[in-house]
Amino acid sequence: MKIPYSEPGSSRKNKTGWSEKIPVISEKCIGCKQCYFHCPEWCIEMINNKASVDVDYCKGCGICESVCPVKAIEMKDRKR
Fold this sequence. Notes:
Blueprint: E1 21-25, H1 34-38, E2 44-47, E3 50-53, H2 63-67, E4 73-77
Antiparallel strand pairs: 1-4, 2-3
């Protein structure tokens, strides 16, 4: 029996974001990349020197919120 999405490089097909809270990044983001470097799931990317979160894979750990030096990230309820 073949396991769905088990071939190499298939992790992008397995959406793993399951938490009730997700990080929301405000306009206060200064592009310091602290959230990017600390995210254990690599769900944050930098677009035009601002952080952006891929909520399809974010586990809602809140590390990004805790390391943001300007408090530009707030954990909020996921809209379902």
